[in-house]
Amino acid sequence: MALVTLKQLVNDAFQGGYAVGSFNVVNMETLQGALQAAEENKSPIILAVAEVHMGLIDLEQYAPIILRAAERASVPVAVHLDHGQAFSSFVKALRWGFTSVMFDGSTLAYEENAAKTKEIVRLAHTVGASVEAELGHVTGGEGDPSPGVADPTLFTDPGEAQQFVQETGVDALAVAVGSVHGIYKGTPELDIPRLARIRDLAGVPLVLHGGSGLSDDDFRQAIANGIAKINVYTDMSQAAMAKIRTAQTLPANTDFGQFMLTVVETIKEAVAEKMRIFGSVGKAG
Description:
Layout: E1 2-3, H1 6-16, E2 20-24, H2 28-40, E3 45-50, H3 59-72, E4 76-84, H4 87-96, E5 100-103, H5 110-126, E6 130-135, H6 158-168, E7 172-175, H7 192-202, E8 206-208, H8 216-224, E9 227-232, H9 234-245, H10 256-278
Parallel strand pairs: 1-4, 2-3, 2-9, 3-4, 4-5, 5-6, 6-7, 7-8, 8-9
């Protein structure tokens, strides 16, 4: 259909009462599986590359592949830099044609986070790209497999969220309300009243990072209270690794390429399940 901006996708979702999944694509298998799920389910999708994953791929070579695949897709696709911190990463992503970037200044003091976010907003908006930022801090690290728990002292303050959006002009805001990056140790409990207050005051689409461990009802409550973008990676990774471990029982002459097609199918199924939960199936039109 088209390569679109993050702002377009999340604004439609925010108004329509669903969320668009943002899926980290770290290789061709994840890229193919995610796009196949989007096209088969007629769902918009965000293809994300996290700054921390740049060591896994040569983005100079990989970025044109992602963008070409997005341009040829039959559904709306945004291509997104996730959890960027280095200024050089934003320059590269925007130069390559990414339609959105996320500046993660969540560990900084409010004033520094706002100032740097505003700088990235100015840069990205100049070339028509969208910006996501984070206020409060979602614990756990991108690419860190260690289980973690949420820290209520780092949750997003609703009043600060309102001020932050007004000061920076961000298109979407990632919030900390009880989830963690990676695997949750125990059972997560989202602070839905806090989320609803942030929605009412901030007035922009909100983003949930760290959905692993959340129930289907958790997701639906979050979406009903302002979440319009949900990041997904750990569940995809775990599904793929479970499939790869089955290779130990396969015949010695199993072809690697043919086996990787089954990994693509596994990724597709994991992504499609999230799309059904998020309510984005059939929303590509």
